[in-house]
Amino acid sequence: MTVLPYAPGFTYRAAFDPAGGTGADSAALAISRLNGDVSELCYLQEWKPEFIPSEVIREACGIVKAYGLTAVSGDKWAKGLIADKFREHGVLYRYTDTTTSGYYAQLPPLLTSSAARLLDSERLVRQMASLRRKRGSQGNDTIDHPSKGHDDMAAAVAVSLVLVRARGVPTTEAEEEAQRPEGSYERPAKEVGQNYEALVLERYGPEHGAALIEHARFMADDDETVFTEYLLDALPELQRLERGRRSAGL
Predict the structure, then answer these.
(1) How far apart, in whole angstroms, are the C-alpha atoms of residue 97 and residue 52?
(2) Which DSSP string do the residues of 1-25 spell out, in sequence order?
(3) pTM surpassing 0.70?
(4) Around Cβ 228, how many Cβ atoms within 10 Å?
(5) pLDDT > 70 fraction of the chain, expressed in percent and rounded
(6) Cα–Cα distance, 244 to 250 (Å, whole number)
């Protein structure tokens, strides 16, 4: 399989398809670059089971950095755990905002118009050729591999080829989260959390209270709903009232 080595002056994007290492699925890494208007697959590697995920991620990070990148994109499989392992090696794992099926749907026009170029990989071609469009129970179409088939390499390649053409792709997890609309529970969670902050300060005093709030924010990792729960733990006398409020649907 031919590899296109890193060359300055190109835009690169990396995509990683994670796996647990003990099942039937492989982990895969794909790196593409934009050469004019053409998405070129530059690097592709598959790790077949059995493997230790942390060792695969360490190896993948070295490859990603060799292409001048500090971030890789992938789905939310084992959300948090995979991102933490990449972060340990100085690489940001950012979540894709489209399903793998959505990326597959964007591939045919790129391939048929010669706007995308692949590496010489028979296994990749077989995986792509095996993809099938299926009609879901709700009438929506999805593109996926057949039963007992695999698409680990195809998934990573599709994401990297499409993302390298995207504009305004978030470069940090904070930016990615900022672009996600707040859900129906997150907005009230912020309001409740603000009330709890005042109560924590009132009960424990400015210094100790501020330390508890800072600890809650650190443990919640910017998730307002989790932050609220940590503050609630600091106010045990309010826990019974809060549970009653939730059970009443307020």
Answers:
(1) 27
(2) -------TTSEEEEEEE---SSSSP
(3) no
(4) 25
(5) 77
(6) 9
